[in-house]
Amino acid sequence: MKRRTNTRASKLFRGIAAVAAFAFVTAQSAAACTGILLHNADGSIVHGRTVEFGIQLDITYAVLARNYEFTGLTPLGDGKKWTTKYGVLGAIVFGNLGVMDGINEKGLAMGTFYFPTMAEYTPTTAENQSKSMSSIDFSTWLLTQFATVDEVKAAVESGEVVVAPTMLPGWPPAVQPFHWIVYDKSGKSIVIEPLKGKLVVSDNPLGVLTNSPSFDWHMTNLRNYITLSPRDVPPVKIDGTTFQSFGMGAGMFGLPGDFTPPSRFVRAAAFSATALKAPDATAGIFSGFHILNNFDIPYGAAREDVNGTVHADQTIFTTMRDPQNLKIYFKSYDDQTIRMVDMKRFDLDAKDVMKLPSATGQQSVVDMTGQFIAKKTANAE
């Protein structure tokens, strides 16, 4: 079973290595994504994220079978070749068969997050081209090749692959800056970041991720918020006068509420760490959606002007993953109905890639008017 990944596209982008090696434009379209991990009472885990971007992303889902051949794309043409070891269910963008967010049959999951001003990939050379690939090839390679976070960490740190500064078909004409979060079924998590031309792996005990700066900066910044608590502040008496908080939530006073990556990271860490444990994975999925609702960006509240064009963030997609039962749940900006895909119901030895024609729909509204029941009141004659 063969597939020459991006072979046609590679012809379009040959020869741009010198231009694109570190060509991350400083005025990127707005992008703000937030990821969380939740532990449930029965020992299961769930994780999920929001997807925000300043332009519309054509997102849908695909199932990749085992024994499928891939070839990575680089600025110089074809790069690393590999064959899928595990079946994968995940989100693809602009029709490119590169999974940017998903889960494999062993419960390994990952998400791709925007990383502007920080991402610095490795330039493609004749010496490293055979193990180089694009950023979306990298996420696909991770999911199709490994079962645990430890396996991923070992492979990345040993230099098995190089992520090249590659233009992606369908995306805006600039090298897109990404970093990645990876989870396995045990609850382990790591973050992988392209820093100064090298892939840097960091353990992620909280399972939280947003965008720039680098992950270590965000973890250090959390020390500014260690006084936050889910418990309300008790009354304080000063010189005989008692001062009492106005109501619920006083323990979280000072929690940053803006849409910047540092503020969202703090909120994601606080909400996921203090969430009461759901009884099981299914209940945890819906708890996760409620938490991620806090990161919805109202259309127009976060925007930038680029050459006279306004790019406004909006929460295009929200997804939760259940690695125990191999299910992905999602909803979109246009339809808040939660949908589910069950990976176990697909033939993971199939010869063809399965694609969902559209992952979005039109918002439905349930008319409850006819459900009212007449009931006599005490004043009725």
Short description:
This protein is of the alpha+beta class. It contains seven helices and 21 strands.
Describe the structure.
The chain has 381 residues and is of the alpha+beta class. It has a single domain (7-214, 276-371), classed as Penicillin V Acylase, Chain A (4-Layer Sandwich). Helices cover 17% and strands 28% of the residues. Strands 13-12-11-8-7-6-3-21 form an 8-stranded antiparallel β-sheet, with helices on one face. Strand 14 (236-238) and strand 15 form a beta hairpin. It is globular, with a radius of gyration of 23 Å. It starts with 6 loop residues before the first helix and ends in a 26-residue tail after the last strand.
* H-E order: HHEEEEEEEEEHHEEEEHEEHHEEEEEE
- Derived from helix and strand composition plus strand pairing, the structural class reads alpha+beta
- What would the principal axes of the Cα set say about the shape? globular
Count of domain modules: 1
Biggest beta-sheet profile: 8 strands, antiparallel
